[in-house]
Amino acid sequence: MDIEDLSDAERALWDAFPNAGKVDLTGTGEAVRGEVVSALLLGARPADAGQVPAVRLTGARITGVLDLSFAEVRYAVLMRDCVFDEPPALYATRIRQFSLTGSRLPGLFASDSQVDGLLWLRNCRLDGPLQLVGTRIDGTLSLRAARLADVEAYALTVARNIDAADAEVTGEVMLQGAHVGGTCVLDGARLSNPGAVALDAEGIELPSGLHARGLTADGEVRLPDARIGRRLVLTGARLSNPGGTALDADRARIDGAAVLDGGFRAEGKVGMRSAAIGGTLLLSGAELDAPGGTALNARLITVGSSLRAANGFRTRGRVCLDSATVQGTADFAGAHLSDPGGEALGLCRAEVTGGLAGEGLRTEGEIRLIDSVFGASVELDGAQLSNPGGRSLIGYGLTISGVLNCRAGFTATGRMSLAGARVGELGFDDATISGYDDLALGLRRVRADMLWFSRCTLTEGTIDLRHARIEILRDDPARWPARPQLDGFVYQAIDKPGPLAARLAWLDAADGYHPQPYEQLAAVFQGMGRDAEARTVRLAKQRRRRRTLPPLARAWGVAQDWTVGYGYRPLPAGILLAALLAVGTVLFAAHHPVPLKKDEAPAFNPFLYTLDLLLPIISFGQEPAFNPRGPYQWLAAALIASGWILATTIAAGITRVLSRQ
After folding, report:
1. pLDDT tens-digit profile of 574-606?
2. What is the tens place of the pLDDT at every residue in 170-222?
3. pTM of the full predicted structure?
4. What letter does residue 415 receive in the DSSP assignment?
5. Which pairing describes strands 61-63 and 626-627: parallel, antiparallel, or unpaired?
6. How far apart are CA 633 and CA 256, in angstroms?
7. Number of helices (H) and strands (E), helices first, in the chain?
8. Which residues, other chains included, contact 392 with Cβ-Cβ below 8 Å and sequence gap of 6+?
9. What is the longest distance spanned by two Cα atoms in the chain?
10. Domain coordinates of the chain in residue numbers?
11. Which DSSP letter does residue 528 get?
């Protein structure tokens, strides 16, 4: 390059270069040709002895192309507040340090290049693409407060940090497969690519974490298969891609916590399917909005600590945590999950080593806990579940090591179905449950140590306890709904049995006649040493059974009931037998029957004769030896018939009692 062709501004830069002197052209409007800067950096101006050259230029207009492609540049480039007419070209360039702080460029092409130190684009404005594909930066890449168009930086390697706090990008940011040795900071950044991908960081490696507090993204943010050390922080971020995916973090691996709290907002699906989070998944205070779709898809997610989605966590759309593994508590206390007519919360086949905290939870739509396992209690005190005409909670095969508490003002509009669940204790005190199709609370085949049901109100349906097994039943028999289904219901003890009449009314109100509920209650009373109550319950069972019999059998049952109380009350039969014996003795003593064979007949004894008539099996030799006449013949026949009836009913009752013993 001919030095005589340099302008004054270029000559000043030429002279300052050898000892890294500063040239400030701010406000002068003077231009510097890009080829002059390129020539200096490529060795056109020799270095002075003992000096380290550098381009240090401020406020200049750069005309032409600053082209360092395929070159190895040993000097730093520090250009501040400059305006470029053409995009700098640094294809496959190796350079020590490159800073364009506050400058404005139509673009920057630096793919496959290597920066030994810093690449500094703070406060820059790029009206065209920033290309860093395959570039290696051994220091920090700073884009803080920059205004950028498309960013193409897939396969980028940054040894230290990426700082893009408060940056603004119009177009797509492509960071697929990038590796950052330190932290990637996007705090306050604004990404805009509506209806498309705003940030694509598939497979990115960030050993020191991703911080994006207050990030705003209009378009999809993609982090599938990302490897993030320490923490993913999206506190207060606002991601918008209505009708699509707002955040895709499927299969991501996060060593520490994933923090999506403090006003985090997402319009569109948040995907964390098969993600692995070493610490806590924090969603408290977040709002996920995908009405009619899936607000959170975290199926097969693994959380190394707790899942916290409490304190104002709100969703519109399905929340799917099916087959999740949580090494701690799943906390939804005070959350509001809404998917009317759909699935507000899916937590099927999940394994949670702690419990489920749901105090004050509000849902519109189903909660599904099918075949899930909780290592502690499920607390739903004060929760409000709503799915009118459907199921509010489904827990088929649910296992809870602690307590399932649905108390303290708990309400469910929609059937609760817990068939086959295994629970430490079931609590429904002060709960109100409204079902459909005559069933509100399904506890069929449930196993629990205790059932609390003393102040539960069931509306528009009853309770199904068929084949359930409870150790201790604590209830109020007067508060049970009509037509409870109790066949096969087994319990070992009743904490407060209450009045016997109320217990019998409870069984009598059951759906249809089944002998087992009566025998179960009688066995419990007998185990408590209350034999009289046990006999009364068994008598009530026979009377209830009688209502199901045909007329003739029903009449025979009335006879057994009236005479011996089906064997559980033999005293009336004994009194009647004694009365008949006395009447017969008196009447036959006054009117002896005629002997059949006068010479062979024994001496007449009216007491033994009457006893012979009443007892059909035992004979004292009186009845076959004498033949009454007239009305006494009818009296004898009546005594014989009464004896058969009384003897048969007494024998049946004795047999029934002995079989119970």
Report:
1. 777 788 888 888 888 888 888 877 777 788 888
2. 999 999 999 999 999 999 999 999 999 999 999 999 999 999 999 999 999 99
3. 0.84
4. E
5. unpaired
6. 102
7. 9, 60
8. 363, 366, 367, 385, 386, 412, 413, 414, 415, 416, 433
9. 174
10. 161-288, 567-660
11. T
